[in-house]
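Shipment paperwork, digital attachment
Item: protein structure file
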Amino acid sequence: MNDLSPARLRELRRESTLRPHDLAASLGIPEAALVAAELGHGVTRIDPAPGRLIPLVEALGEVMALTRNRSCVIEKIGIYREFHDGAHAAMTLDDEIDLRIFPRHWVHGFAVEAPGKDGIRRSVQVFDAAGDAVHKIHLREGSDLDAWAALTAALALPEQSVPESYPPRAAPEGARIVPDHADTLRSEWARMTDTHQFNTLTRRLKMNRLGAYRLVGAPHASPLAVAAVPALFERVQESGEQVMIFVGNMGCIEIHSGRFENLKPMGPWLNVLDPRFDLHLRADHVAEVWAVDKPTKRGPAISVEAFDAEGELIFQCFGMRPEKGGDPDSWAALVASLPAGAAA
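Attachment content:
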């Protein structure tokens, strides 16, 4: 990265037809370095602390919220509402912009103005310590530009220089399994009354999500074929099933609640292209899929969860809760119909 000066990065950005994420990957640099190279050229470093940022984003009105990991991108159009701050976890609770936020990963923030085909494009872009994108907020035609100016002025940092360095991103953890804890895992899994108890259980047993799924076995977790993912998308679209799909990274999880109306596969990509919701999934990255059944006070929480070859979670998909219009029996039957796979 030493031979790529900000001026050279700006030049490469203008010449490239690649999206910033893909250009950065091709250059072997963090995406945040591409954005930081534009400081003073339409880009301003801002305080990314969610407790300061999100209330100012609310005033922008309708925007597009984007969250990604290495294999999947989710985009939702709406207004940021019902923000609840917290030191370790925060959230927005709106029918359209529904986020779970983990503030310690919101490290580098930028207010971006860049020329586009239809004029200036404006966005807030947040990255983690390694310079990987955590969350992006893109203004739309009807967004409030006075609120944008107020956000930029309020959050601009005194120091507007390019970050000196980005530490290496953490290596994927893979499945963490403790075979001696299998009986405890199964017995305590069966006694769960809330899905949030799962994370506490696995931490206490020194395992992680994928490790627990591989160890616990049926009926709690059953392997599915990789082909279960396109089958899931097709059957959700065909049936009109209402689902909740969670896509995220270490710093942010974005949730879509509703249907898949327009499924458009294209090469390795599975795309959902709906009026206010897009999803782009690299189906060829899916290496492991599980059907998971967690007991709760309201009945079983059944999910389909996909992981990549390094054991990183790509997405989770649940049936919509009954009080929101979901049909638990229909969802359970849909998941049961998906092609089974061999245990990892």
